[in-house]
Write the structure tokens for this entry.
Amino acid sequence: MPLKSDSEIEALVPLFEYLESLTGRASIADLDRAMRSIDVTVEDLAEHIRYCDEHYKRNLIREGRWYQAYALCWKSGQRSPIHDHTNTTCGVRVLAGRGVETIYEPSPCGQMMAVQSRPLNVGDICASQDSDTHQISNLQPAGQNLITLHIYSPPLREFHTYSATDGTVNRVRDVGNGCCEVVETMDIAEFMKR
Ligand SMILES: [Fe+2]
């Protein structure tokens, strides 16, 4: 159900029509296609653009039975944790600025290892699901912001964040209002056995 008067965001109408038509989780191919097909700019989402000095800010645009749509706002130097997408399909489209996506995999010693980084320019899409593990960062010079549109299907209620340095994993729960809390911390080795 809409949280805001987002019916006025004309550019997102085709995307929300697709998301409202879902009767189950979106496939990564369909979500990628739907996010690629819209013609959206940062001006379209002006009412949802809010920043935080301490960390990147997740601004909920709209939520339905099978999806959430967020505008994420990143100041220079702000980064997501290394995280997966437990039981969820996630699509990201860059609306302003230049981001970096870094992909991680478990290393032989159990800690996470960066295996690839790539720039995310305006209009670029990156799609992830389930155990796909990555980090998104704004590494532009001071004063240069990054804005990204994120769709999760179904809504992302719980996922995992991974330490880059000590081999631990946090199970994290979305507690609403764009905020999350850690509910469990474990070793990666223990987590991989589950
Ligand atoms: Fe992600």
